[in-house]
């Protein structure tokens, strides 16, 4: 029998690699009888969706722009370093 | 003329690349660095044959530059924390009792419905990411936001798969706890 601590570790790992068959069966059985870990499993799925929504919000926010000073710094840095390469 | 190229690229794609990097690195200075490194690499290898558009080509470059920055951020931290990690350690004592039962049972999360709730929720999530130890946050961003697969992460960071799982587990446990404590709805 898995403890909740072990089950929660497997839930997290399942986001990063396919679990072995025995682990998958043990986890499924634990989730079947354990509300707390089932909620934890749902939380991690929601967390992943949420951080990707956060990423999307920044990517699509046209108010966020490369600051003009940053742009000037980049142009200067790139032309400086390509000049020094030529000497 | 080199300057003209960089200017054109930045005018055309600078904002896009900056947002792409900011969404993954969460730090304006690091995002600027990523754009700069991308321009340097693009100048050196000025060809996007085989790619559909200059933007696709530049995006491909910045993806790698972001990983470089994340790797640096994680590896600059003391190494001892990395090698100490073990799934059997006691760092989860805040969450589980001696017999492995939850000390506080996870709650049901009702995800935000309205646009305003969504905005508040994401603001809280952002604060929770800030509160994580920097290394855990960087690894979490690499895996769950930049969506680099585990194998590549282990190779880039020269850590074992177990190290990566344990750190990601800790990061997720920390984030969900923080969200439960700080996300006030209604
Ligand atoms: Zn359980």
| Largest sheet data of chain B | none
Number of helices of chain B: 8
> What percent of the residues of chain A sit in helical stretches (DSSP H or I)?
over 70%
- Averaging pLDDT over every residue of chain B, what do you get? 85
The CATH C-level name of the largest domain in chain B is Mainly Alpha
What is the general shape of chain A? elongated
Q: Helical content of chain B, roughly?
A: 55-70%
Short synopsis of the structure:
The complex is a heterodimer of chains A (87) and B (186). Chain A is mainly alpha-helical.
Short descriptors:
heterodimer, A: 87 residues, mainly alpha, elongated, B: 186 residues, Rna Polymerase Sigma Factor, Chain: A, Arc Repressor Mutant, subunit A, 2 domains, 69% helix, 0% strand, binds zinc ion
Architecture overview:
The complex is a heterodimer of chains A (87) and B (186). By secondary structure, chain A is mainly alpha-helical. Chain A has one domain. Chain A is built from 4 helices and no strands. Chain A starts with a helix and ends with a helix. The mean pLDDT of chain A is 92. Chain B folds into 2 domains: 5-77, Rna Polymerase Sigma Factor, Chain: A (Orthogonal Bundle), CATH 1.10.1740; 114-182, Orthogonal Bundle (Arc Repressor Mutant, subunit A). In chain B, 35% of the residues are buried. Chains A and B meet through helix 1, helix 3 and helix 4 of A and helix 1, helix 2, helix 5, helix 6 and helix 8 of B. The structure holds zinc ion (ZN). Zinc ion binds at residues 4, 7, 30, 34, 36-37 of chain A.
Task: Please write out the topology.
The complex is a heterodimer of chains A (87) and B (186).
Chain A: H1 4-13, H2 21-33, H3 35-59, H4 68-86
Helix pairs in contact in A: 1-2, 1-3, 2-3
Chain B: H1 2-25, H2 28-44, H3 54-75, H4 79-84, H5 115-131, H6 134-145, H7 150-157, H8 161-182
Helix pairs in contact in B: 1-2, 1-3, 2-3, 3-6, 5-8, 6-8
The structure holds zinc ion (ZN).
């Amino acid at each position: 029998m898995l403890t909740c601590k072990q089950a929660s570790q497997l839930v997290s790992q399942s986001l990063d690699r396919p679990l072995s068959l025995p682990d998958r069966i043990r986890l499924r059985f634990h989730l079947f009888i354990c509300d707390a870990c089932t909620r934890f499993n749902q939380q991690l799925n929601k967390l992943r969706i949420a951080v990707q929504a956060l990423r999307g919000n920044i990517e699509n926010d046209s108010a966020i722009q490369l600051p003009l000073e940053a742009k000037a710094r980049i142009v200067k840095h790139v032309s400086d370093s390509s000049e020094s390469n030529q000497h | 003329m080199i300057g003209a190229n960089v200017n054109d690229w930045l005018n055309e794609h600078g904002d896009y690349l900056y947002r792409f990097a900011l969404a993954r690195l969460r730090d304006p200075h690091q995002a600027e660095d990523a754009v700069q490194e991308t321009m340097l690499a693009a100048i050196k290898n000025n060809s996007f044959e085989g790619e559909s558009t200059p933007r696709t080509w530049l995006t491909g470059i910045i993806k790698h530059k972001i990983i470089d920055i994340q790797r640096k951020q994680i590896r600059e931290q003391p190494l001892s924390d990395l090698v100490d990690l073990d799934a059997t350690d006691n760092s989860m004592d805040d969450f589980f009792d001696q017999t492995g039962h939850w000390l506080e049972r996870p709650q049901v999360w009702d995800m935000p419905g309205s646009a305003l709730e969504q905005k508040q929720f994401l603001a809280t999530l952002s604060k929770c990411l800030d509160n994580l130890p920097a290394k855990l946050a960087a690894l979490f961003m690499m895996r769950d936001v930049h969506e680099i697969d585990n194998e590549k992460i282990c190779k880039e960071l020269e850590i074992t798969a177990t190290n990566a799982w344990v750190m990601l587990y800790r990061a997720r446990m920390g984030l969900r706890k923080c969200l439960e404590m700080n996300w006030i709805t209604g």
